[in-house]
Design goal:
- By secondary structure, this protein is α+β, with helices and mostly antiparallel strands.
- Helices cover about 40% and strands about 20% of the residues.
- An eleven-stranded mixed β-sheet has the order 1-28-2-3-7-8-9-10-17-18-20. Strands 4, 5, 21, 24, 25, 26 and 27 form a seven-stranded antiparallel β-sheet that branches. The protein has a three-stranded mixed β-sheet with strand order 6-22-23.
Length: about 800
């Protein structure tokens, strides 16, 4: 037996390094916070004048009462320069953190705690793909992007560093083009399901068998709504033969052995004001600062306003003078995991044409306070081998992903600025190769539509569900589906379109696989749009704030069949009987239903997965991603309660009906939920409210450190909601007290009048600077369902008392 315990001297050396790093970081934290408390460092300059290198002409930046910058420039290049400038002024730490995450360079500033994510990202290689993408970017696209990058550089030279840099005690590097490209690819990767679900399925097949997996992984419900045409019937999504899954599982033997969004648009003919309406609210991580940032850019060529992502040169949810747009995640499977067979030396791998030499790339990860790590990343014809960073996976797993192709979506982002109609809009989003999104569209002429973007691979039927054998050419991609063949609709007869991460087409029309989420949010939007006529901005606001959970309403009907055994249960079931399905923070019924559902979901999973339940719920790697099987847990539970399969929980007597089995399971879950609520919230059931169960903390990137959490995080506070309410409040968990991880980070409603009118809410401040008064007010408005105007008229902006900063061409320096 080999003793793998490190020698005592090595353990002492490691302990010494940890101690020195802790002392260094602790000292930097104390100095930074003492200075912040006694004499806060100067923030970004927001009034007066600054001379900056890179401008062609002066630019005026007017910041309104919400902190939204309105950048008035004399040409398009200077408008983009201004966007880069304000991104750094208000969100530079966020940009720094995101570029380091994408490049796998967290550990070099925080130490070993950053290594798990860094190791995975270095094997994945988004930084290698970003460099290749920028190198392949045509000059005419580079020329349009470079002004934004020059604005970043100018602001870095003219703006004091945020507090986080002083806490970590380091100076940032210059911003490079591939930093923006890499962050875009990271966003696309995190929004793309498939690869980890394929691995998880394979591990579950090995652990519990295919039959158990198929029992819990039913895919998108057969009667779930589709995006276009709205309300069309939806059949089974091409259910592949079980023998194909068995064959793949036998060949490869893999194993150890909270996103979403809503959007909709209403045609002018259906709207109270006679103009098309668009509403959009992306559901992203509950972070501080908020992942998104509002801005307005104006120049003679175009005027565009909406939500941006700091570090990227575009408006992703917004409008110009002629059109409005807002995407949700499309959830096509744009990634494929391949099991590669290597020879004994580990250098050559099997291909359809024989053995081929793998490429090996050396990745060196700097670790603050510790020696650097070196990793040999193996790359096959399909992509990088990522399995060394997946605990418990023995096989060599290579990942092919559209994100790793040498594309950049910068051209598409910029083309939205001056798109003047649906044809120009479609040409613009055709450039979003990395991003599989479903855009809602509305324009000033009253038209509406939905359009899917992204490079979606052509596959053989059945591929994309389990990892594929890398040596079998039948599982290779056959190019990509042409953009004009991706699902879309324009001006449907009823004048309404929407999406909520549901299937885009009925099954017979689907040409690709997707990991679509449960259909309840889409169904709720469809119900409300059909019953609210005519449409209005007020109705859009109400719908974005809607907390009705359709699966919990269906679950309630089953729960009411439980026979109460005491006065407390009679009280609780009476509350449930009178409940309207709204997962409100103040609701006792929502707490009872939500907790009972969570207990039953765990029982249902354990009945089929047994000891593999922990694997199913844990993920298994360093990056948080959505488990799409768990994300469809609500439809699984509702279907099982309707179907009442007799043998789900094991063999039962032949005389026992399935309904009795499930009645007993539901009763047990109800009483387990009561015990949990009593233990966590006290004996008084009138104080069992959903807001005390489901709480929200906005977490800073450094907020996991005990010393920093109370300074940098905001919360917890009661929130409510669930993963299937329009006002979403993940998590995807079997614990009703699990912290919320996904929220609508922004809400935007646009009325496409000749002079478009818009209003918004943001889950946090525009500026990442602590103590920002306007930021606290913005977050308070978001929490309480209040909206603010997103103005584009200069006179109205100035009348609201905006701060004025003049950027003048010239030299600059921090």
């Amino acid at each position: 037996m080999i003793d793998s315990t490190p020698p005592a001297a090595e353990r002492l050396q490691t302990l010494g390094r940890h101690s020195r790093l802790t002392a260094l970081q602790g000292g930097a934290f104390v100095r930074a916070m003492a200075r912040e408390a006694l004499r806060p460092g100067p923030g970004a300059q927001r009034s007066g004048a600054i001379r900056v290198a890179g401008l062609h002409a002066p630019v005026e930046i007017l910041r309104d009462e919400s902190g939204v910058p309105h950048c008035f420039a004399r040409n398009a290049d200077d408008a983009l320069f201004a966007l880069g400038f304000v991104h750094v002024q208000d969100r530079f730490w966020q940009m720094e953190y995101c570029r380091r995450l994408a490049a796998g360079r967290i550990a070099e500033v925080v130490g070993p705690k950053g290594l798990p994510a860094d190791r995975f990202m270095r094997h994945l290689g988004l930084h290698r793909s970003a460099a290749a993408s920028w190198a392949a970017t045509p000059d005419h696209i580079r020329d349009r992007i470079l002004p934004y990058l020059e604005g970043i550089g100018a602001a870095m030279a003219a703006t004091p560093l945020p507090l986080e840099f002083r806490i970590l005690d380091y100076e940032p590097e210059p911003w490079r083009p591939q930093d923006s490209t890499g962050w875009a690819k990271a966003l696309a990767f995190f929004l793309s399901p498939g690869w980890d679900a394929q691995i998880l399925r394979a591990r579950l097949v090995e652990a519990v068998g295919l039959e158990a997996l198929l029992a819990i992984d039913r895919g998108y419900p057969p009667d779930g709504p589709v995006i276009a045409p709205p309300g069309a019937p939806y059949g089974a999504l091409g259910k592949e033969a079980e023998t194909a899954f068995h064959d793949i599982a036998r060949l490869i033997g893999v194993g150890a052995g909270g996103h979403g969004s809503n959007n909709w648009a209403t045609a002018a003919s259906r709207s109270a004001g006679g103009h098309a309406l668009l509403a959009t609210d992306p559901h992203l991580a509950a972070t501080l600062p908020c992942p998104t940032y509002f801005a307005h850019l104006h120049c003679p060529e175009w005027s565009v306003a909406g939500a941006t992502v700091p570090g990227l040169p575009g408006v992703i949810w917004g409008f110009n003078r002629r059109i409005a747009w807002g995407p949700t995640a499309g959830l096509a499977v744009t990634q494929e995991v391949y099991v590669e067979e290597f020879d004994a030396a580990g250098r050559r791998y099997r291909t359809p044409d024989g053995w081929a030499e793998a490429e090996v790339v050396e990745e060196r990860i700097a670790v603050r306070g510790f020696p650097a790590e070196s990793h040999a990343v193996v790359i096959t014809r399909h992509g990088p081998v990522i399995s060394p960073q997946l605990p418990g996976v023995r096989q060599a797993l290579a990942l092919r992903s559209t994100v790793l192709e040498p594309w950049t979506s910068g051209e598409g982002l910029l083309a939205l600025f001056d798109a003047d109609g649906v044809d120009a809009f479609r040409r613009a989003i055709a450039g979003f190769q990395e991003f599989n999104l479903c855009f809602a569209y509305a324009d000033v002429d009253g038209h509406v539509g939905t359009y899917v973007s992204g490079a979606v691979p052509r596959r053989r039927p059945g591929a994309g569900w389990l990892p594929a054998p890398g040596w079998d050419p039948a599982f290779d991609w056959d190019g990509f589906i042409p953009h004009d063949q991706l699902p879309h609709t324009f001006d449907p007869p009823d004048g309404r379109v929407w999406s909520a991460n549901n299937a885009p087409r009925p099954a017979p029309e689907m040409t690709y696989r997707g990991e679509f989420l449960d259909p309840y949010r889409a169904a709720r939007i469809g119900q409300q749009l059909a019953t609210t006529a005519p449409a209005s901005p007020e109705a859009c606001r109400a719908l974005q704030l809607d907390r009705c959970s359709l699966p919990m309403l269906a679950f309630r009907d089953h729960l009411l069949a439980v026979s109460p055994q005491d006065e407390t249960e009679r009280f609780l079931l009476a509350r449930v009987r009178d409940w309207d399905g709204a997962m409100e923070p103040s609701s006792t019924a929502a707490a009872v239903v939500g907790a009972t559902f969570a207990r039953l979901l765990e029982d249902v999973l354990r009945a089929k997965l047994g000891g593999a339940t922990a694997l199913f719920l844990s993920g298994g790697h360093a990056l948080p991603t959505v488990n799409p099987i768990l994300a469809r847990g609500a439809s699984l539970i509702v279907s099982l309660l309707d179907e009442t399969p007799q043998d789900w929980f094991g063999p039962v007597a032949g005389s026992v009906e399935g309904r009795a089995v499930w009645a007993a399971a539901l009763t047990r879950a109800f009483r387990d939920a009561q015990a949990l609520l009593r233990d966590r919230l006290g004996k008084d059931p009138t104080r069992w409210t959903w807001g005390r169960c489901r709480q929200l903390t906005l977490s800073h990137g450094l907020g996991s450190a005990p010393l920093l959490s109370r300074w940098l995080n905001v919360g917890p506070f009661p929130y409510g909601s669930d993963a299937n309410t329009l006002c979403q409040g993940g998590p995807l968990s079997t614990d009703p007290f699990a912290p919320i991880t996904v929220i609508p980070v922004l809400r935007l409603v646009v009325e496409m009048a000749p002079e478009p009118r818009a209003e918004f809410a943001l889950a946090g401040a525009q500026s990442e600077r602590r103590g920002d008064r306007r930021g606290r007010a913005l977050l308070d408005d978001w929490r309480h369902g209040r909206y603010r105007p997103l103005r584009t008229d200069r006179g109205a902006i100035e009348a609201a008392g905006a701060e004025r900063l003049l950027l003048q061409p010239g030299a600059s320096g921090r």
